[in-house]
Each structure stands twice: as C-alpha cells, then as structure tokens.
Amino acid sequence: MTEKRPVSDIGQSAKAPEVASHHQRWRLALDKVTQRVESLSHYRHEGRVTRATGLVLEAVGIRLPLGSACLIELSAGTGNGDGERFAEAEVVGFSGDKLFLMPLADTSGLLPGARVLALSGNRLDVASARRFPLGDGLLGRVVDGNGRPLDDHGPLEQLPHAPLETPPINPLARAPIDTTIDVGIRAINGLLTVGRGQRMGLFAGSGVGKSVLLGMMARYTDADVIVVGLIGERGREVQDFIENILGEEGLARAVVVAAPADTSPLQRMQGAAYATRLAEDFRDQGRNVLLIMDSLTRYAMAAREIALAIGEPPATKGYPPSVFAKLPALVERAGNGKRGGGSITAFYTVLTEGDDQQDPIADSARAILDGHIVLSRQLAESGHYPAIDIEASISRAMPAVVDTRRLRQAQGFKQMISRYQRNRDLINVGAYVSGQDPQLDRAVALYPRLETFLQQRMNETAGIDHTRTELDRLIPIDD
Ligand SMILES: Nc1ncnc2c1ncn2[C@@H]1O[C@H](COP(=O)(O)OP(=O)(O)OP(=O)(O)O)[C@@H](O)[C@H]1O
Ligand SMILES: [Mg+2]
163: Cβ–Cβ under 8 A, 6 or more apart, which residues? Predict the structure, then answer.
C-alpha cells in the first residue's frame, strides 16, 4: 500500500542510535574517571567479607587473581601481631562474583563486612604473590611457612626475596641420575643405594623411627646444604628435631621450615612449597642439596582441607582429585637441575595409616617417587633400628648408579634375608635340619651378621666405602 512508515516508528528508529551513543559516551566518561581514580597513589580497591564459616572466607566487591595475596581487616586490638590489624589471606577460588579467601593466620576479631584489600595497591591485573627470603643467609635458621623467623637470630628482611612459583624444568634438560650419594646409613648405602637427584619415600606408621632416620641422614649425608620441611607434625617435635636429632652440626648447614599441625592448612602447604623453593634456589647455585620433608601425607591432608573447604567433592578416602595433582607438582620440583648444575636429593616421609601400605596417598606417592624405604613396626618393636624392611624397600635408581656386581651383591643379601625369614618358624622350633638346602644353611649361619649389618645406632655414621668393605666380607662378589 504505502511505503511510508508510521510516524512513531520513524521516531523510534531514529532515537535508538542516539540513545546508544548517549550510553556509550557515559560509559567512556565513567571508564576514564575510574581509571583516573585507580591511578591515584592512595587509592585501594577494597571488598567486603560476607561469610566466614569454617576455614574459608567469602568476599565480594573485589576482583583478584587466583593465588594472589590480600589483607583482611580485623577489629581493633585483635590480629596476630602487636597492634597488627590485618590478617593475610590468599585467593583460593571464586564462584561468580564471590572470592574464596583462605587466611594464613588466626582471624579472631573478624567483623561481618570487614574490608578486604589487595596486597599491592591498585594493580588488580597482576597477581600480587607474596615473596619469601632465600639464600645463604638462611643457613642455621628456623623459619615458618610464611618465611618469618621462628628463632631469635634476627630479622630476614635484608635477604633476597622471591615468589614461590618457578617454571617447571624441561624433563629433557635435566641431568640424569648417575652418581651415588652417601647418606651415612649402612642399610641404605649398601642395599638401597641412592643417586644424587633421586626422590625417595620413607613409608611407615607412627613412631617407628622416621624422624630419627631423617635426622641421621641430615647429619651424615654428603651434601652441601640440607633443607628440612617439618610439615603438619606435632609442634613439640619441631624443637626436639632441631635440638636432639639434627643437633648443632646438622643445623649449621641446614635451613628448617616448620609449619606444625596447629598452623593454617595454607601455611602448611606453603611451608612445603617454600622448603622446595629454598632447595631449588640452592640447586640453581650449583649446590648439592638434601631436601627432607616430614611429612608428605600431612601436605596432602592440608591440600584436602583447603579443597574440601572451597567445595571440591571428595573422591578417594575423602581426598578430592586436586590433591593427587598437587603431589606430583611438588615432588617434580626436586631432582637434578640442568646438566652441569646442582641437584636436589629428596626424602619424603609418607604415613601409612595403621601400617596400611594401600592408603591412597601412599599409593600415589609410591607411583611418583623414585623408590621407597619401608619401615616395619615389627622390627622397631624388636629393637631393630633403623627398622628398614629390606625386602619391601627398593631404590629404583640403584641400577643406574652402581655396577652389576654391586647390584648382584645386594640381591644376594636380600635373598638370604628372605630365605631365612620364610623358614624362621621352622628354625625357631628346631624343626629345621641342616644339610638339606645349602643356600638356607648359609643364610642361617650368616643371619646374625646380616642383622648386625642392618642395624645402626643413632649417633653412628656409616660411609659408603666402609659399608662396601663390610658388605664384601659378608657377600663376596664373584667376578
Ligand atoms: N636408630 C635408632 N636407634 C635407637 N632408637 C631409635 C632409633 N630410631 C628410632 N629409635 C626410637 O624410636 C622412637 C621413635 O622414633 P621417631 O620419633 O623417629 O618415630 P617417628 O616415626 O618419627 O614417629 P611419629 O610418627 O610419631 O613422628 C625414638 O624415640 C627412639 O626411641
Ligand atoms: Mg616423626
């Protein structure tokens, strides 16, 4: 009919671009103002705490990158330091506009609606990761999971600081494990020889001598620097480990990072990461480092606490899937550096609940480590220390660091022990008649000497050369 459109229609379509451009102008103007406000030196983004139940706090009104640090305001007169009114926290997750924050220390005194501030002023696009002290200035020191001194040997602010994250090493660039490391323990040096850059697990139930064995290694191992991470264990043990087990000579070339059970789960996880970071730093300076972590299980438990608190569903034995990803991520950071550089030989203790070797963390650790030393409760109870179950233990890098003759010798030793063990009951009741099995006869005759070889007092060291001479006397190598 007519090609003319109704007047009202014309009016609307003509108005639409006008409204849009009007909005656009406003938005541009607003953006400019925001940018200018944000660039003011005294301006800080801030959000509000909206929920505090359990371990995690929820905050709105602030956008921070995952893994970045922030400050939470506490009410006056509280906080974890003298007059300190802010608690540090880390962004551990988000959901929609809500941020999940995990405080690093106690947050008693937190008020509903408390302010949340970005740690590094107004740069929201950059993750403001915390920085930790590193380097030789830490030798002989005891620090917490935040890199703050626990001893009274002065502040650490003057030392070089760096974030905990480091880029992963290209697996092809890593030096192979090809030299032995002397750990000063006869049973390990002789039968479970460890290579520089190897990562071993120490699997045991509670109270069977893990800490004592680690302490002996810390004192006797042929390494330039020792880094000890005491993660999630009893607080009382920290002092005991430092004073009685490590001793003055051990501490002099060591750094101890202690995040005992009563610290926040984040601090425990961070403690393990920090100990690893320290070891990496020494390795990158070309040194041979011994890293001792007691315990990997408590690290996994801290990771579980955090993951469950931010709503990740539990999978195996209450452990959410992310925990099984975090373990290799931590362990892979140890090991050899680039060719010609330093090394990190690491020992991680793994708790086997009720001496159950099938615990999911134990299982996962066994798969990612280069060998395991199993401590047996039965041996410990009979007073056999270190209570290493030689039959159940293995060093996967041993074939790469010793020749085939030594390998055969160690196998011969193990076979003799297991032959004796299998017939132990018969021998004890006197039902065993010699002359029927020459191998068993030999095992029976040698057994007391084999047992003596495997035992070692706390304050006794057994170097690798001495160990080999003794081993040659017990099991002569046939060329
Ligand atoms: N080489 C050794 N010689 C003599 N006694 C030892 C030796 N190793 C361990 N012990 C004894 O075993 C006890 C427990 O050792 P330790 O504290 O190392 O066990 P643990 O496995 O670390 O225990 P937890 O699981 O409670 O941390 C020690 O107090 C000590 O009496
Ligand atoms: Mg212990």
Answer: 129, 130, 131, 132
